[in-house]
């Protein structure tokens, strides 16, 4: 192989660095603001760690604001959405992948069609639905909202994943003495782990960072999820940028943790060696 | 060990495809039965119905006098080896072997003993802690076999287990399966599309086509007395040669060519309409006083070492002749093939293509 000219290598790295800077700059800026003392919030100083940096904003979040409450709310809603979404998608996708029933094709198409509408367009009908179910200002209302918007993608995702697992594995399990359900649980689900992880991440993210729907459904400040809480620092007269920035940093921490924990399952080739086609 | 009975079994798929027609078959206790046929002939469907993986449209299947139509695959006391091995990839070889026993709540001690015993039988002790992805094709197939054996089922089912292996390994595993049957003496039902596999393994072979049994008989019986033209053409390599023509007083005639046959049965003589004359490559010889075919030119000669197979065209069809290794023929050689006296078969030229037995046939076989 001929090594490429140094000029090209240099250019390539320069372009990559530019984009890294573009994507990292806002996050660093937020970090920087969250560490500034109250009187320097709008300084144009470029240092990432400001002079006389302080954790005041963080401390204020936990002591003066119901931040922990919002965190708990968000975690509750997100985990509920994740568990419900994964459970339903795992079984729904399996049914669509393995069983041939009347209306299967139509069902799959209609699930896909819902994905073609922008989520904001579904806001009004879903709002009316939640209102009529008397679920306004409840986490259950939010759950219904989130699960129903995340599920179509998740079901397709899982169906696609099951399609790559040879049906003869279940058949072997059934001959080995499993019922259909046990074969699904003991053989197919473990193999679908990467698909489940992607589905879980997607469901979690759908709920964790969602703002618009939450703003319609939740009204009590005590019920707020994190995005709503963070937004509440922005009032019509003034915005508490220090709190805002500190909260933004803290909001992203659980997501990073979830990613790190789940990433080891995001390995390809789980089913290598199972069957030979 | 158990018998297996198919009684008027039909399989019709929701799209209307009639995969298996009114199948009646008895598998004897301890028998090695091979289902063979071209793809789409219904052999795999038949096996899968026996396994319980495919519903039966009508009729009944019984394993040892127990009708199993509505019984789950796991409760039929069968074990199955799949074409693509179907090993559980997230389990080690040991766990793969033990899975079926675990599902049946076999005591741990017994599982360990039986797993170890099977592993040593198949020579896979050193692989027990590996995952399927770390095994070669042959090793995987061995594990798949082990997973079936360890269960000690009443009936073994094989669904084209060797078709994913390379030629050399296939021959080796074939011998292993044969010796396995010899040792275990368990009833085995084996599906393949490979007639060589069928001939070498089967105590009895069932040839299927279009969802129907064409003939069920011992390998040599099939070879020597095929029930119809399909069976005659399917069994044997190279396949049987055929000529289409008419029969007049024991004289086969076709486009200016006539061959005098001896011992033609009355049934054949009284048959109205065309017939097919079939003869195998080894039924053609160069030096004999049998009835001769026209002079032909050899187009291809395949040297097999112990013999050669020559190919020539007669009446627009490719035919084959088996020649001794010593015969000095080359592509382009002109030869006059002769038919061995009892080396021919006559078939009716109709849809079923039934064979007319020769006059003195039973005495010969």
Automatic annotation (TrEMBL), chain A:
Coiled coil: none annotated. GO terms for cellular component: plasma membrane. Residues 71-262 form the ABC transmembrane type-1 domain. Keywords: Cell membrane, Membrane, Sugar transport, Transmembrane, Transmembrane helix, Transport. The keyword Transmembrane applies. Gene3D superfamilies: MetI-like. Pfam families: BPD_transp_1. Its main location: membrane. It is a multi-pass membrane protein. The chain crosses the membrane at residues 9-28, 70-94, 106-129, 135-156, 187-208, 241-262. The keyword Nucleus does not apply. One of its GO terms (biological process) is maltodextrin transmembrane transport. InterPro entries: BP-dep_ABC_trans_perm, MetI-like, MetI-like_sf. One of its GO terms (molecular function) is ABC-type maltose transporter activity. It is found in: Cell membrane. PANTHER family: MALTOSE TRANSPORT SYSTEM PERMEASE-RELATED, MALTOSE_MALTODEXTRIN TRANSPORT SYSTEM PERMEASE PROTEIN MALG. Part of the ABC transporter complex MalEFGK involved in maltose/maltodextrin import. Probably responsible for the translocation of the substrate across the membrane. Belongs to the binding-protein-dependent transport system permease family. MalFG subfamily. This is Maltose/maltodextrin transport system permease protein MalG. It comes from Adhaeretor mobilis.
TrEMBL record, chain B:
GO terms for molecular function: ABC-type transporter activity; ATP binding; ATP hydrolysis activity. Its EC number is 3.6.3.-. Keywords: ATP-binding, Hydrolase, Nucleotide-binding, Transport. It is an enzyme of class 3 (hydrolase). GO terms for cellular component: ATP-binding cassette (ABC) transporter complex, substrate-binding subunit-containing. Residues 4-235 form the ABC transporter domain. Coiled coil: none annotated. It holds the Pfam family OB_MalK. This is Trehalose import ATP-binding protein SugC.
